[in-house]
Amino acid sequence: MVNNGIWKPDVDYSVIPEGKMCDYDYVARYMQRVGYTPKTSIENVVMQSTADFDNEEEFVPKNYSNLMINMEAFADFIEANSGFEEFDY
Which one of 38, 45, 55, 57 has the fewest CB atoms closer than 10 angstroms to its CB? Predict the structure, then answer.
């Protein structure tokens, strides 16, 4: 969640309402769901993967109905790049 302009991951996304989540929250929740444990930090992997995804022309980065991250396309992007390990540096 974003607090005072700084994003920090939450421990349990099951208690956070969808309307209170930002793109980074959706990515962190997805990372937790697939069971990836970062070697660096959740913040680092989320920001690295999201930045690369936003610049990738092959995928549609946003849902135009709500302007949130397109998680289906993001999951495809992660899979196409050999998983979160690729962004964990």
Answer: 57
